[in-house]
Amino acid sequence: MTVPSQMSLRRIPDALHLKARMVYAAGWDALIDTHTTQALQFLCEFAPRLPALDGLDLYFRVTAVPQEMQEAVRVRTLTTLDLESLAPLVPLPSLTGWQRLRIDLVVEQQRYRRRYYEKTLELARMVGARAAEAVIATHVENALEFIQLLSGVLPVHAATDRYLREFGLADSVAQMVLQRVQARVAGRELTAQYNEPSAPSPDSGSWSSAAEPAPPAPVLPAPVPAAPQSSPPAASSPGSPLPGPSAPGSSPERPAHPGAVVRSR
């Protein structure tokens, strides 16, 4: 488990370094408060069975408190403990006088003590499971604050993994925290997706226009200069016969050469 002063700030923008350390330190302090509250409740419930110091040691035995955090939890628990709120310790029956000479009574007493301690340990594990649930709930709240800080920088899954890796949670606990965090942010993430602008339609051609640059304008060839037009033929005078089609097999008439004599057939 990483202490707040050694938290990695990789992939976190420089502008958020201070806030990330503050959120991580606040999460660390919240976990200490949760363990302290659960330890005080543990001592009050097991006061009839165990002395306070033995009960505190048993709490660390049945509850997964990080090694770096145990001293802080122990100090805060002892400074907060109200001795007057503890129930008196119930002593175990003991043999006196001639009873110590009876082997059957001695064996029965040893069996009773063993069953008593086993029952105490079983109850302590049950209370430890309750404390573990409170710790998981605290991790979920801390992870949500961390996700909110890194919103827009890291996705939800990456930010949660970053938090779980920094606190060094066991795989089983990390999976429970991850699942509850995803359940808490599912509605918000879905709403954010619905509020985003709709994707462009493929038929509108906006995908190709947005993804591909516009093609360059075609280079037109240089205009070819127009050929000079000949003068139109002179219109025939009114009353002059129009040339008709030549008869089949007849050769077209050639213009008479100047000075030539045209013979009649």
Biggest sheet features: none
Q: What percent of residues adopt helix (DSSP H or I)?
A: 40-55%
| Alpha-beta content class | mainly alpha
**What's the helix count?**
7
Q: Uncertain runs with pLDDT below 50, 5 residues or more? A: 207-211, 260-265
Question: Span from first to last CA?
Answer: 132 Å
Which outline best applies? elongated
User: What's the SSE pattern?
Assistant: HHHHHHH
The proportion of residues in beta strands is: under 5%
- Chain oligomer state: single chain
Walk me through what this model shows.
The chain has 265 residues and is mainly alpha-helical. The protein has a domain of 168 residues. It is built from seven helices and no strands. Helix 1 crosses helix 2, helix 1 packs antiparallel against helix 4 and helix 5 packs antiparallel against helix 6. The longest helix is centred in the middle third of the chain and has 47 residues. The N and C termini lie far apart (132 Å).
Please supply descriptive tags for the structure shown above.
7 helices; mainly alpha; 265 residues; elongated; disordered C terminus; single chain
Helices and strands in order, then pairings?
Layout lengths: L16 H30 L5 H11 L4 H14 L22 H47 L6 H12 L3 H25 L10 H6 L54
Short description:
The chain has 265 residues and is mainly α. It is 55% helix and 0% strand. It has helices spanning 17-46, 52-62, 67-80, 103-149, 156-167, 171-195, 206-211.
